[in-house]
Write a structure and sequence with these properties.
161 residues, mainly alpha, 5 helices, 66% helix, elongated
Amino acid sequence: MDDQNVYEPPKAEGLELGKFESFGGWLRFLQVINYISVIFTVLMVLMVSVFFILDEYADGELFESVIAFIELIPDMVLAVVILLIIEKKNKDVPSKIVRYLGIYIVASIIVYAFVFYLYKTEAIVEKPIGFWGSVIHYWIWSSYFKKSKRVNVYYGENAVG
């Protein structure tokens, strides 16, 4: 008879192989796209600042640029927060990221409503960026953090319930 402990909890598949213990895969991809998001947002702020300093804006363009920047604020805040915590090997990190993604959705909808109001009252001429991309982003990444084997092994068993 095999001396197997039937009361021992099952182990993740990649754990005994050492397969998912490193930071990589889709976690690394999320980190890279957040770095890219931060870089592009900083470049946009610099561009708006240079045009403002050089007084190169036509009537209303500065206001349009500021509104475009306001639309990017939820993305920027989410990217910075994720970059600050994503590599920490802590069991609470995946649930924090899912919570931050939820806050991101709410903030994106509020900003969209504000900019859409400005568009409808003709204070701005460009239609706002839709929030459905944010909803899809939330759905994809929250599902990943809840179901991924790599997340469970890297951050700890059953990191997100």
